[in-house]
Request: fold
Amino acid sequence: MMLNLAKIANITPSKITTGLLLFSLLIFNLPLSQAEKQPVPPALNAQSYLLVDYLSGVELAVKNPSKRIEPASITKLMSAYVLYEELAKGNITLEDSVLISEKAWKMEGSRMFVEGGKKVPLDRMLHGLIVQSGNDAAVALAEHVAGSESAFVDKMNAIAARLGMDNTHYVNASGMPDPAHYTTARDIVKLARSLIRNHPEHYKLNKIKEYTYNGIKQYNRNKLLWRDKTVDGMKTGHTESAGYCLVASAERNKMRLISVMLGASSDKKRSDFSQQLLEYGFRFFETHKLYESNSVLAEARVWKGVSDKVPTGTIDGLYVTIQKGHYDKLKGMMELYKDIDAPVQRGDLLGKAIIKDGDHIVAELPLVALSPVDAGGLWSSVMDSIKKLFSN
Reply:
């Protein structure tokens, strides 16, 4: 189909609607535009890292974001996600008693020190998984949910596929090293955004600084929780092969950033580097909601229908992340398909909207039909066919 270009004047605050916090998996999140005098992100000595705005998905700082790495204990974010899904479905409850198998009891690495053969409330096990990063907790919870760790891993991989984590594969619930156990910084961001969005009540566990079980107090390994009061998650990871890793999230003035730091050379550096990324993002950028859900952005011409027009827009809201002070410089452009024949269903793709900061594209999103248009009768079809000949 050919495109009929419809230009819109400068977007100003009075022309932008605001509303509930909604997301669109259809938004094409683009790297931040290289506008004039854009601040240079920090260059950090790690295998891979990524800084992303939570609402818009815009990437603010990147290094090897698609490089496959061992996630180590960051794996437990997905283990927790499976648990949250099972809790939401009612398949398990926080009051469940989790039996500690010999396999769980014998797990090496970080542990919450549960005792084999005993039963522990699931809520306590969940704290041991998130706060203490217990490998024993990960295995025991996996067995409780799915009967075996391998069956639980199948659930992990199914959710990864559903979230679009195309470069991720899990083979265990704890993050123990394995050549077939891998992910990327970009995939971790997809998981982190989904976890915060879909399970906010459980996400709060990530900011707990310490937890005691069996008389043993352990501290959350995310040291940013002590350094920066705006940091409220998410998870550390470390093995000899993976290096020191940290997924961190912080919220300031209703703007949330997520940083993923993978393969730093020390515990201190993963914290320092993550803090540098967060400071860079909050210092130089701001996020705005341009459109609320079901906003009508343009009307498209429809042929051979009971109506000759259909409202188009975005079913979900649109957020953009831009350099501070550039909000009033944003411009919008709508591109609508020219030859649209009825019937039209709600959600049908009819064009796209382009948001620019100067000459640089900040974001693109699909324009879809916001209401259906049924096909008209024979007379309408004949007359519109004639009209189309003269409109081209």
